[in-house]
Design goal:
heterotrimer; A mainly alpha (157); B mainly alpha (495); C mainly alpha (119); A: 157 residues; 6 helices; B: 495 residues; mainly alpha; 74% helix; 2% strand; globular
Chain lengths: 157, 495, 119
Amino acid sequence: MKNRSLITVTVSRWVSPFIFIYGLHLILYGHITPGGGFPGGVVLASSFILALLARGREAALQRLPYPLAKRLDATGAIIFLLTALAGLAVSGIFFENFLLEIIPGTPMRLISSGTVLVNNAAIGIKVCASVFLIMLFLSVLRVGEDEQIRTIEKEEG
Amino acid sequence: MSGLLPLMIALPLGAGFILALTPGKLTKAADVFALLVPAGLLVMAASLYGFSGSYYVGGWAPPVGITLSIDRFSGILLTGVSLLIFLTALYSARFMTRYTSRIKYYVILMMMTAGVNGTLLAGDIFNRFVYVELAAISSYILAGFGCSGRELAAALKFAVLGAAASAVTLLGIAVLYASYGTVDITSLSAAIQAGGGSGVFFSPLFLAGVLMSAGFALKSALIPFHIWQPDAMEYSPAPSAALISGAVVTTTGIYAMVRTLFSVFGVTPQTGAAVAALGLISAAAGDLAASSAGSYRRTAAYYSISQTGFIIFGFGIGGRLGAEGNLAAASLVLSGGILHLISSIFFTPLIFLKAGSAEELRGTESSAAPSKGISTIGLFSMAGVPPFPGFFSKAMIIAGCYFSGYYLAAAAAGAVSVRTLVSLLRKRAALLRPEGKEPAAAIPLLVKLPVALMALVIIGLSLLAAPRLRGRVLDPAGEGVIEAFLPETGEGAAQ
Amino acid sequence: MLYYLTCLLFLIGVFGLLTQRNIVKLIISVLIIENAVNLFLVLSGYREGGAAPIITSVTSQSRISVVSVDPFPQAMVMTSIVIGLSVLALMTAIALRIYHIYGTYNIDEIAAKIREKKE
């Protein structure tokens, strides 16, 4: 943790925004190109995990604080469920793609898939937060760092 | 009506994520919320009872879409499991206060509920696999919830074996998909029947059947695959042990196995006999292992393996009889198996919850022995003492074997159940402490009440064996299973 | 040929699961088994020279089922990978906690320590 190489720190700082943008691209264009919510979310998370590995836990938590990650984790899943329930409410069928009739969009463009885009975004948020949390907890769970688990537990209130 | 099917899965999932957002200050509110959701699910499951039909998620029909379906068999299990989860949630509200975060426990409980309901409702084998995994992953966490060393070791054993088993199940699904190009249960079974049924040895179909049964057999802790179960049952928190043995094992293990074998592969006399033999081995070996087990919980764990074996034996014999065309006997045996399955949803958890009450009474010492009284009801229905449902279900299975000419099977099953009865009655004195040593009032009401309700349910279940109720409840459920080998049944897919 | 290789991979995983005494190696064995199954699943939908199952301006909607590989196993593998990831995370976390408590990854030593405590 102490003797981090300058190259690693600098390069990770430069690279992680690009990874983040690529993750966003994967999520947003998941319905028309290879990609989607899960791969995009993992790529998003990897930009934070890069910070975690290269510059330590504090740097990563600065970019994505623990309470926020926890909330995003649950919120993403709830959004996903809500779109499914909205399908039930609007057209009477669970998971019905009701947005497609309202906003058909042009095929092969960003707005062309109705609820799929919303679902992909929700999954992306959830996966990003979950994968980041997994890595965070594994980094905390090492020997002799039990107190740090408690501090993290305390932070959540 | 079928619109309730997706909600049975979506409601616990949503509730789980809402609970995950709840801050620690609102634990009391979370208690109430975590109780209301299973109550709502119980009401929905009860109103779905007796209904059969299917639902196409997103309006996509089977070859591409996800189907949810329910029939009499899954309906009766859905009601039973929902009731169990409600009672366990009631029990946990007081019991789980000893652990740091009750809310996290509720989150996992909700995920497990979603997984269990999904397993019961899924209309294709791949989705069933996914829901089985959801329930299984939750149960790994529940098994290690207390985070003490032996709990974690038991949970890790469970997780490693469970993950290997699910890989094996998935391999079975992959083989089926590679051979038939579909995973939807209805079209898959039609394709298999058209291809000559499952009688051919060493065909891809046979391989897939063996792989999938082995995967589900591990989840249901049948004897060659049982090594995770006694450890997990002995060390995990009492409600976790109750949920794993009552909800996860019965649905993701026994139900998934029976449904896969009966509805997908179709039962032939040979597969029925093989399944029955597997069950009988578990029944006998579990009973033998229980006699030499040490603590109360470990003994109960081995006895529950024995009961699982008995259920599987019942379904195997029922399948064989049905495949041979002896439908009256098959119906009797299957009704017995279903009755034993439903009562095991309650009596095994009752035994583990009583162990938890004993811990509550005497500090946190695990594997403490409960007092006599209510736990006797659980043990007696496991042993098959007359007024309790265990007796009727075992009697129905054995009588069905006897009347259809399987004297050897009847004798073996009879010998195993008599041995269980004798050894359990003999061990009971050593396992339980005599009543009256400690004042019973020391156990909080919220811990006592669900256990007492569960005991009432068990006594009520023995009424199902009465011919009239049997004809109205158990036999239709058995028909749901039998449908698999009646050629003329067309699937009436509503929605 | 590739099918046999996935079978070999599967058997390597089973062999590891049966012979290894180290928790980390056991977890890796489970992962090998899972990945072998995933590879098998993807292969079952493979078609010689098939295109990616995506509708673009080149592959039209009507021709997609003819020219592309089967997308369904890919969806299944995706799900299976997600499941594998969550089980892996859980198993690793439990393994780390166990190491924290018992100071070893060897399952025999852990079992001995559990037995000692009991007596």
